[in-house]
Amino acid sequence: MKGFAVTPKNQNIWYVAVDVLFMAFALLLPCRYLWPLKANYTVDWFGNQWVIGYYGEFFARHWTMPPVFNTSQWGGIPAPLFYGNLAYPVLGILSIIFASGLVMRFAALCLFAAQYHWVSRALRQMQAPRWAAGAVACLVVWATYPLTNLFNRGALMEFVATALLVCALSLAVLLVHAPSRALERRYASRMLLCLVISAGTHPITAMLGVPFFCVIGVMMWKNLREKPDRIPSILRSLTPGLIGACACLGAWLYAIAKFMNHLTVHHLITAVSFQPGNWDHWLTRFYPIPFDNRVKPGVPLVEIWAPYLDAQANVPLLILFVALAVAALSTYRKVDRSGRLVAAVVIPISLFAFFTWISLSPDSYHYLPHAFEMIQFAYRAVTYQNLALLLGVFLILMALQGGGSAPAGILKHPVLRLVFAGCILLSAYGVTVKWKHIRAVRNVTESPQENLIELPYQYYGVSDYTTPDYFVPLTDEEAKKAVSAAFRFDSQANFGTAQPLEITVPEMSWVRTNILAFPWSRFEVDGREIGASEMRSYEGQALALRIPAGSHRLSFEFTPDAVWRVLRGISLLCLFGWLLMEIVRSVIPLQGN
To answer: Residues near 67 by Cβ (< 8 Å), separated by ≥ 6?
Structure first.
């Protein structure tokens, strides 16, 4: 163009514009499924909407987060103590202003964008061309299983946790290659924040993600041995985040340590769920596009549990990793005297093979510690298959860069470029196929529940976190004579607060309440506290109280101990302060070296 001079500034603006357009296209494919805004999907989608709305309503009324859910059907539901402990409060705050469904969509959009941004940035930090970095990021955000989690399972917390693991892994790579101490501090803080929220959102996901960060830690240590002056700097960068992690997770860790062995869900997990004839078959797992062999012509979807539960590994990323590994080994293996490149290929292959094994073989859990059975569903291992492939791409480029070879050189090979193009096309086609599966379970007419004090039938976590073994169960004889009485809870100014219950019994009786069994549930009869000896559990989940003859006034309050209350206050203050700090940091320029 006449009069236009190409300068570094103009070139940077052009690069940024191209990056934004490419990112917009990458996000459009999965995020278009979030439209229309009033659409709903599987039953758990409604459950998440209700939980987010409950958090927001409770905070708006009390300026604190709910320790339990109190509803018209059941009170004292202790799920907030253990599940979604850090993610739901953040989403709940947003629901004060926006509808819960819109908050879920905003969270999904932000997480897709964050994954794309950090994956592509990590690759570019290792001198990968922009097109290659963007292509790998596309393959990550277009993967089938995360879309299944979000839309076809409604597993919002698992979707959030796995997305944050991807971001944390990318930030760990950026931390290794940070060109300045200022960036080093930012990457360390954001990496640990992602890990903390992931762990506090879906603990199973974070637990099984530990091996990947151990690998990154080993690679970081090897790199830093050549630059010993960076070790104190990185340790200083990590220290505030580690302190913040302990503060954010303190309340959850305390509750887990105190009650884990007594939780109902802990006793329910006796074996990992497998469906070898359906989604847990090797052919299904490695099918290149979304596929659920349970869905057949003439079979109504209402007769199929979680239809289109597509649990494919990220086959396009697998193809790309294999091609990149072959190209790197055939080109640079002879000059790789340290064995770094071989390790960069072998380690992710080993991790991928391990998670493939536990996702397809029921016998695998006979040889593993009992902790691995916390995965519950074998197909959850797909997350770590995909994470292993992304780790493999990172490690190969790190090895090439550490060995003095520019990754850009090998990535520009014509054959590898064709592989990139083929993988992008295959992945994009898979997303379009997935759209048909999502649309099949989409509901555009049913509106979300408006009365938050009513427990939706779609919410599945009612009794998972009860502790009935703290109480003596009602005998059959006592159960026959027991009477029922249900507490009601305010839905207005004192939202979620129990209203006094008036009851008259002709003789000493056991009264079955709608309060779930948990040691922090406190009852009073006519102002006198009811002791544990006057409580019984019934039906394995709720509490019955021994009430003397006559007319009485019962009251209920959930009162966690002082240690938990202090830790929870510190946790929430630290979490929101940390998030606010990172938001402010993202809009101010870096200072310092």
So the answer is: 78, 80, 81, 520, 558, 560, 568
